[in-house]
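[recover] target loaded
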């Protein structure tokens, strides 16, 4: 059997290890280690130390003076604690990460207790949870930590028996010799801590895996269903006030005046302040009501009378946005990817196929409303809440209020959905400003209407595609131009479009002359990361246009793609989904099917959507997806993530945000509906076996849905869909 390996040109993160035994633990310094008594063997990575450098073990060391990043601690009571530095927002890392560790450590997964580490960029690097990258970044490291601890415990037992290490085995939390005698891990902790660890411990072969690859129930699900789990919205701290903030309906509206004295007289109101938050360089103003309860804050907010300066902002609407986009599309733009000579190819051709695609703004709409608690004190600051970006909040508070970062404490909880929205620090900024002004901890809670109308949002975009087919139906040239706002460049002087703008466009297609261009457009409507980012928009245009070219060439859409691909992972998911759906078999009358394939975060998704005429309507009946995401840690979690992204993507196909008079029209779910269960078709997800390094499953399904559905609708009706959202009632 082949041993698990890294892809070519990718180096293993074989950091050195520090071994310490803890006899006395400070709870303040060491995040609620455990109630267990006795010593601990702690194994963790040392940042900044090369894999070849030897690090000696330290007995009875104070962990606060040992710069370990992610680490494990094994107690004399046989407990195993894993300190995880990445937030959990529903993606399943609370189960998958312990599974990786348990595999190499040779313990039952139920022995592992997972704890969140504090926010500390110097120790952990980026702790932001985005892009479905938690497993990608931690797989190697967790295996090495588990293997290093296992080998230390084996050596400790072998020393006691006066045997060599190859004469003992580790399994189920104990070390056993050839005669059947054994020691539990807890019995070996103190001896193991006196040994020098290996920087290159032996890893298990993939054929030896007993845990990785198995569907194991998630530990966090029961607590999230019985109310035991703590989310940011659940947190209260002594002496805090609640804040509700009225903001300008028009983006960038400025406050001219408000009735502070009148509102201060209302029940429970303690303060009324002007406040602001920063969204990628733009200041967003608001008036905050601080009260002794959230109810009183919201009721008093309704009594605010604010005069806004919105001159000029009210002229922005859908029509002006589209007009500006198509005007910008006339520019050549920045080349983000190129091969061959596209300009020459199109200049010499009279048979150019061209199509334009339009995608609207989208809201994040996490189930848990946006919220944050911040306390600004004389000597430091503290945050409580649900965030994808603990480092960002810590840095903001330290820099803004002139604290050293070690004086800023970040307490982060489970998240009731993130989807990129909780990567922003803006809500914490508001809470910090109000805490500073009031001298008390302040909890800011956004209403659903706040979230829907204020943003930031997923960017809307216009995509223009041009292609050339030769007489044999082969694509000889392709140009894909993306016209959109860019997240990191929303203010200031004009700058070049970045490569992020080309996300989701398949540059692995074997097309001789191929160019991807970006045209950056500036607007005051705030945008941010939205699940899969530009992958959520570009593939709609790209994969639909590929389908259009296939039809023009009178070729099967899957075969057409395969003829342009030598990428093995793209090919295998397309070939697999074709088999799963009996693609080559004749389709039933009154049905249609469409295909799309997208890579995101290293995971490859090929999808077939089937549609059917039913009771005078056209409805999607089945979605089949084949996935290659490398080594699969927990199939149930992968399927949940994949299917969740598909459902979210399908919802985005049916809904979108509209701009009128400089403001968002849709204010809540009655005008911006989420996908209902009766609108959700059957979903089948197939995970392909792979030796590649594990990649993320939480994003690639979303961008694949829209083009696959649009292609299926064309297959049934002959109508090309080039604009989202899709009104299925008009498709009959």
């Amino acid at each position: 059997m082949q041993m698990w390996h890294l892809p070519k040109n990718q180096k293993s993160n074989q950091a050195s290890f520090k071994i310490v035994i803890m006899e006395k633990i400070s709870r303040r310094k060491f995040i609620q280690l455990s109630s267990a008594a006795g010593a601990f063997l702690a194994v963790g990575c040392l940042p900044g130390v090369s894999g070849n450098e030897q690090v000696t073990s330290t007995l009875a060391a104070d962990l606060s003076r040992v710069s370990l990043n992610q680490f494990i601690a094994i107690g004399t009571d046989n407990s195993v604690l894993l300190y995880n530095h990445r937030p959990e927002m529903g993606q399943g890392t609370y189960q998958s990460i312990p599974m990786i560790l348990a595999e190499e450590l040779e313990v039952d997964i139920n022995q592992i207790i997972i704890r969140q580490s504090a926010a500390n960029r110097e120790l952990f690097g980026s702790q932001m949870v985005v892009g479905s990258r938690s497993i990608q970044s931690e797989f190697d490291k967790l295996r090495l930590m588990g293997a290093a601890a296992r080998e230390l415990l084996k050596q400790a037992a072998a020393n006691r028996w006066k045997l060599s290490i190859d004469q003992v085995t580790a399994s189920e939390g104990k070390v056993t010799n050839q005669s059947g005698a054994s020691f539990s891990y807890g019995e070996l902790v103190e001896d193991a801590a006196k040994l020098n660890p290996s920087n290159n411990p032996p890893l298990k072969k993939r054929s030896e895996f007993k845990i990785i690859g198995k569907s194991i129930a998630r530990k966090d699900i029961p607590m999230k269903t019985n109310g035991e789990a703590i989310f940011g919205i659940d947190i209260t701290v002594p002496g805090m006030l609640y804040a509700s903030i009225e903001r300008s309906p028009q983006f960038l509206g400025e406050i001219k005046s408000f009735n502070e004295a009148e509102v201060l007289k209302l029940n429970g109101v303690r303060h009324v302040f002007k406040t602001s938050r920063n969204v990628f360089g733009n200041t967003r103003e608001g008036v905050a009501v601080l009260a002794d309860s959230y109810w009183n804050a919201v009721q008093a907010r309704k009594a605010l009378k604010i005069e806004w300066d919105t001159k000029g902002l009210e002229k922005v609407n859908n029509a002006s946005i589209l007009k500006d986009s198509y005007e910008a599309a006339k520019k050549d733009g920045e080349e983000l990817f190129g091969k061959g000579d596209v300009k020459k190819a199109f200049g010499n051709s009279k048979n150019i196929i061209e199509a334009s695609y339009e995608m609207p703004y989208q809201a994040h709409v996490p189930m848990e409303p946006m919220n944050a608690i911040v306390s600004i004190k004389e000597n430091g600051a503290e945050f409580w809440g649900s965030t994808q970006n603990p480092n960002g909040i810590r840095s903001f508070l330290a820099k803004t209020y002139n604290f050293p970062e070690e004086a800023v404490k970040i307490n982060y909880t489970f998240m009731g959905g993130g989807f990129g929205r909780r990567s922003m620090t803006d809500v914490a900024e508001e809470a910090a400003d109000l805490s500073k002004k009031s001298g008390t901890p302040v909890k800011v809670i956004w209403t659903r209407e706040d979230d829907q109308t204020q943003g930031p949002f997923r960017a809307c975009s216009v995509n223009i595609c041009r292609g050339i087919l030769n007489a044999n139906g082969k694509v000889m040239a392709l140009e894909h131009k993306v016209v959109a706002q860019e997240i990191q460049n929303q203010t200031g002087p004009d700058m070049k479009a970045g490569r992020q703008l080309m996300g989701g466009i398949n540059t692995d297609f074997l097309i001789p002359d191929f160019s991807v261009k970006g045209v950056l457009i500036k607007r005051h409507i705030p945008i941010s990361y939205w699940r899969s980012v530009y992958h959520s928009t570009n593939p709609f245009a790209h994969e639909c246009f590929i389908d259009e070219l296939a039809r023009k060439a009178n070729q099967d859409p899957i075969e057409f793609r395969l003829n342009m691909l030598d990428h093995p992972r793209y090919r295998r998911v397309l070939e697999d989904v074709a088999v799963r759906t009996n693609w080559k078999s004749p389709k039933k009358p009154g049905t249609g099917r469409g295909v799309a394939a997208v890579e995101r975060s290293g995971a490859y998704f090929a999808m077939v959507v089937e549609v059917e005429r039913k009771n005078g309507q056209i409805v999607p009946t089945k979605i089949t997806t084949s996935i290659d995401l490398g080594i699969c840690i927990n199939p149930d979690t992968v399927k949940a993530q994949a299917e969740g992204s598909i459902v979210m993507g399908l919802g985005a196909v049916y809904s979108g945000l509209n701009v009128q008079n400089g403001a968002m029209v849709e204010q809540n779910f009655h005008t911006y509906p989420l996908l209902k269960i009766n609108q959700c078709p059957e979903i089948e997800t197939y995970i392909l076996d792979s030796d590649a390094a594990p990649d993320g499953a939480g994003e690639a399904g979303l961008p694949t849905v829209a083009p696959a559905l649009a292609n299926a609708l064309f297959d049934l009706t002959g109508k090309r869909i080039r604009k989202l959202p899709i009104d299925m009632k008009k498709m009959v």
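[recover] notes: The chain has a mean pLDDT of 89.
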